[in-house]
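Provenance

Sequences were taken from public entries as deposited. Structures were produced by running a predictor on each sequence independently, with no templates supplied. The record for CRAL-TRIO domain-containing protein from Tetradesmus obliquus is shown for reference.
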Amino acid sequence: MQLTEAEVYWWLEGNVSEENESKVSELRQTLGALLVPGLDDRVSLLRFLKARHWNVAKAAKMYQAMATWRTEHEVDQLLDRFEFHELPLVRKHYPHFYHKTDKYGRPVYIELLGQCDIDQLLKVTTIERFTNYHIQQSEAFRCHKLPACTAAAGRTMLTHTIILDMAGLSPTRHFTLTVKHFLENISRIDQNNFPEHLGCLFMINTPLLFRGFWSVIKGFLDERTLAKIKVLGSGYLPELLAVIPAENLPTMLGGKSACDCTDLGPWQDASVVSNDPALIKAAAAGQLELTSGLAGSSSSNSLKHSGSLIGTAIQITAGSPSSSGVLDEAIAAQ
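Predicted structure for CRAL-TRIO domain-containing protein:
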């Protein structure tokens, strides 16, 4: 089953049913003074409604829990003030980055899971600092990457395409208790506070063990979830090129775009950023690295942000008893 364009851009005006559109107003009225500035717009409320299958009461409960979590973790402060100086070393042991956009205008996020080493990662950072970094980059995705992709595409962007490269995945290195606890924490944050951001997920170079397990658990997932996921072996390239232009796909994955495993996308394009006051402010504060100059910016102090679905992938590959539930919840939350 392939998603239609209306399903890809499900949040746009005209793609949401009248009944579900009416629930946006109902949710807004239910939340009242509990609405979070910056997360009180139509599209944000749609995300929580869809994550809870358009049940207003459940969506309100989820939203209120998110608002409380943001206050407790001072999320607004993390985006502006948290400095993750160890990022170059973190990326060495956990390669993850955004690279351009797919044919729909969605940012493309890539993780090289087979090269990930959580034990080494925790020697160069701590769980607390990595968690803060993860929250910060999730906010940067919402506040910087999506607005820039929206400006570049000429329509509202809400989701991203994800590639998880499993080449080199090792049971002895990737399926330990340390990894499990680390990833459960990250997955919980995503599921509860940043729902409905997944557009498409490609798992490539998957080992036979994973593909065998996938053939079992996919029977428990609904068609909407399955339509977002492609589980592929080494012959993945045609599937990727059907969604991502070759000139936007890194050479390491068979495309034509040079890639150094750091972020690259419209949020670094001065001509795009200059059309959005919020992005101009972020660039001036050094939160965006521009590929060309923008008056008032300080790219030398830029922060580079990216995201994570590693927890879902490794838990599924490990074959934990609750793996199908973990995947269904994580996909629904993204």
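Residues 293-332 have pLDDT under 50 and may be disordered.
Residues 5-72 form a domain with the Helicase, Ruva Protein; domain 3 fold (CATH 1.10.8.20).
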